[in-house]
Amino acid sequence: MSRRVVHLLCLTAVAAAVGGCVSKAHREAERAVADYYVGDYDRSVRRLTPLAARTNEDFVLNNLRLGSAALANYDLDAAEGAFLRAYEVLNSVGVNDGGRTVGAVLVSENIRIWRGEPFERAMANFYLGLVYYMRHDYANARGAFENALFKLRDYGEKKKGAKPDKYAEIESNFALGHLMLAKAHQRLGRDDMAEKYFKRTGELRPDLAAAADPDANRRANVLLVVDFGNGPRKIGDGMGSVVGFAPKPVDVGPPPPPWVTVDGQPVQVAAVARPPVDLLVLAQDRRWQSIDTIRVMKDLIGTGLMTGGMIYGMQHDSRPEIVLAALLGGALLKASSQADLRHWEMLPRTTYVLPLTLPPGTHDVTVNFPDVPGVRQTWRGIVAPPEGEEATYYLRMQRWNNGPYQWPPPALARRNDTVPARADAAR
Amino acid sequence: MASLHLAAGLCLCACVLAGCGSAVRHGRSTALDSVDLVRMTDDMAMKIIADAEVQQAIGREGSLKVVVQPVENMMTAEVLPRGPAETFTARVRSLLSRHAPDRFTWVMNRDAFYRLRERELDVDLGPSPDAISPEYALVARFSSITDESPKHRSSYYLCVYELFNLEDRSVLWTDKYEVKKSAVKGFLD
């Protein structure tokens, strides 16, 4: 057998091995996402736990997936750990240094470590904060919610000849983060800061004035955090080089309002049941998207090579092989700008924050979306603490997990916790 | 010539693959890290033991009964999970119990004591917090200011440690550790 054939076989074997490993991991992640969608959070956590331990290019994404599944499963330790691992990488710089940058530029964007779009990063911080909030660790909840309010990049109106990465930094309009930050400050006894962020929430979204009422929030002893619908999906065009998000809000209409019943009686939540965030809207907002530097650079370099090649080709003493190489190289670079379509599939479309004031004791609570048949969830034995305290309950609405569920869920029952708060409130 | 091309191609592949090792290897953050932990706690332990007022209190009252609390997170846009929050004060306790065992009686924070006991770890937890009533508390508060721009991120940390009397809330000793950390953003940040 010739040496060339041996080389070829070796390279094919390596490529097959790498490709096989990647696709197996991706298939497992897809199964975990499917488990999540049908409400089998326990199985989703089991599938994602080994994937999230691998420090590959999907490290952040798999940890966020694991965090979502563990949170829905009320495994707050696992959720905290997963969101924290993602948070650490998201807050680092240079994670793609070394060969990943070269690989992402020359080969495929999928080689780079996924760090998500700005709206995905904001939600990652929100969920980390929510886990701490549920555990009454309000100082860390405050820190995470603050981190969700990072500055956004406003690219303004596109002018002819303007550089594609020119932008101004502006304050975040993430009303969900402002609202939860206000609540965390209120629980920390910082009424001045709480007032500031409640006010800011109302300024950003006047329809959230009731949900951001300081007195109503202070009185509330039960907080329902309800994730509804599915977040945006990243899609490419036929050539795979242009990225967009689907569905668009106009295609699916506004998020429907929830109805809440406690012990069979309807509770008036119409004033507070407004969606503080609509991720389908954020995904279409340029300020909430990352500019795709790699593809822009490849596109620019490719265009430059082709233009340069043509200009050079028009000269008398030009060498045809150089012209051909420039044109081909430019065309290849432009053609190789394949989009990275990875995204956090478990994100909801919106998250409702519903503060309730209930008599202390246990209650049966149902959250229902009458406008969407089949989407309802019932919990029996929900604990409402005495006045001055607050218990937070997270509900992930899916068609397949209507319940009724008994409080505490198995993951909390194993820890002997009756409310999702822990003694570390003392901190 | 052909083998030179093959070698160059393989080298390029090797470089790309070598850099694709880990999502946590290359990243740099401005958060407090293990170097700060060691520097800060070494410094604080040394300063407590050398403080004149602490020496006087020991001379007057004998071994000081001190409860150790986890760090209070007052940092801007940063979380400090329970483990590190406990470590930043627990290491001061550990250093002092090694170097000045007769001057302090350490009482573990009630939450930490019961959590560790629940895990049934084979470590000496010291006396139960219910058996000994502490007279002093060792606490720490971390604050930060972060400045972030498209090109860099920098954070200034102020870490204040206090040993205070639980009865009258008077501060017996206090000191601080300050550090500024910055990181330059790269092409894909």
In short:
Chain A is an alpha+beta fold and 427 residues long. Chain A is 46% helix and 14% strand. In chain A, a hairpin with a 2-residue loop joins strand 6 (259-262) and strand 7 (265-267).
Can you put this structure into words, describing what you see?
The complex is a heterodimer of chains A (427) and B (189). Chain A is elongated. In chain A, 45% of the residues are buried. Chain A is built from 15 helices and 12 strands. In chain A, the strands form 4 sheets. A 5-stranded mixed β-sheet of chain A has the order 7-6-9-10-12, with no helix packed on it. In chain A, strands 8-3-11 form a 3-stranded mixed β-sheet. Chain A has a two-stranded antiparallel sheet with strand order 1-2. The termini of chain A are far apart. With 427 residues, chain A is α+β, with helices and mostly antiparallel strands. Chain B has 189 residues and is an alpha/beta fold. In chain B, strands 1, 2, 3, 4, 5 and 6 form a 6-stranded mixed β-sheet that branches. In chain B, α2 (34-50) crosses α4. Chain B starts with a helix and ends in a 5-residue tail after the last strand. The mean pLDDT of chain B is 84. Classes of the chains: A alpha+beta (427), B alpha/beta (189). At the A-B interface, α4, α5 and α7 of A face α1, β2 and α5 of B.
